[in-house]
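Researcher: Next entry in the queue.
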Amino acid sequence: MKTFKRHLAESLKEPKFKEMFDEEKELIALSMKLHEARQKMGASQGEIARNMHLTQQQFSKIENGENCNIMTYLKASHAIGYRLTLEPIKRGHRLAHTS
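Model: Structure for this entry, 99 residues:
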């Protein structure tokens, strides 16, 4: 029987799977940062949601990384007093040229 860790390690060798896995990991990290920042400021999900004109359930989905676009993350970040920024992935990262 194949273990999850072994299955994941094998799947991560496939470039498209790895790309999608890494993107999902980044989304979850962003959602967790929003959650931690909100808790640090002592605000409830409902309080932040009202500020954003959302329901508490909608804001909960943002903190869980469910079905969000960049504008939603921008609004959520601003509602808790944060700003989203871009950081380089690695030095010299360039788009691949296609012919």
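Model: The mean pLDDT is 86.
Researcher: Noted, moving on.
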